[in-house]
Amino acid sequence: MTINRRRLFGGAIAVGAAGVAASALGACSTDESAAPVAAPTPGAALRVGSGANITLGPVKHVEAGLLNTAYIEYGPITGTPVLLLHGWPYDPYSYADVGPLLGAAGYRVIVPYLRGYGPTTFLSAQTVRNAQQTAIARDVVDLMDALRIDTAILGGFDWGSRTADIVAALWPQRCKALVSVSGYLVTSLTANQQPLPPQAELGWWYQYYFATERGRLGYDRNRHDFNKLIWQTASPQWHFDDATYERSAATFDNPDHVDIVVHNYRWRLGLAPGEPQYDGYEQRLATAPAIAAPTITLASDFDGAAKNGAAYRGKFTGRYEHRVLDGIGHNVPQEAPQPFARAVIDADHL
After folding, report:
1. DSSP for residue 152
2. 342 Cα distance to chain centroid
3. Could you give the CA distance from residue 139 to residue 135 in angstroms, rounded to a whole number?
4. Among 16, 63, 76, 235, whose CB has the most other CB atoms within 10 angstroms?
5. E strand or H helix that includes residue 128
6. pLDDT tens, residue by residue, 44-98
7. pTM for the full model?
8. Rounded-to-10 torsion of CA 52, 56, 58, 64
């Protein structure tokens, strides 16, 4: 399918920040006494279209593996499938603007609520509330099976990037192309035992909080304000309003949410066990397998000194591009929906 990217994304993103500045200047008065119009920051230009959609559309459900998975769907059912995966503490609203853009371009877009979020539930009360990385990746493969999707373009950020990376690495036949914010995020339990410089450790304060029972209780009691603080610190230049946050905050009321979040971070630090059925997957991931699918990696201000992507370039052995979104924080698809959607389409055509 041929995509008219200029029509899909509009002039602002198609021509970039310089074009936005030129348009603004052209629209202002030519009176020499008029105050000069400052060019927008890169982040402001990249945020064009953010917040355009305040609803997700109907929530669908399907039994997939261990879960009754809730998901949002955009676009024609005959389109090339795209699975978009959210992170913590976020939800499918991260793709509220990306989904319609890709649906309008002819893609079939699936945005699931991960285990422990929103209306996604476990089929059995006896299932371990396990959030190790391969359990969540297996959920995605099970969802693809349930929806009879053989292969899809995968995209994500935070937990979603990690999950998409793992599916691409362990089930390469299921991944047509990949868009991964922050690059190669496969967790190494061995590496996680090594300390980081103090400033880096400070940024992960919540992981150590969750390692304590006080932290688990605190998150359970205060998850609304806790997660709003994470949004603010992870995206300091994204001035979201209360309504935007509240739409996502409802997702954290899932009865399994606290168990899933706490287990995820304890497991990463070696403080909580995984399950034996995932041992084979974890052993394969321990070798840090390369990803051969065509890939576009995205970096933002959240990535700090690592935003150039050099640290993980060698992990992607197929056709590849790396893009840096200056002025954008951690929640890349919600903060910069048009660049994220373009990355999905461009990865499909690498």
Report:
1. E
2. 15
3. 6
4. 235
5. none
6. 899 999 999 999 999 999 999 999 999 999 999 999 999 999 999 999 999 999 9
7. 0.89
8. 150
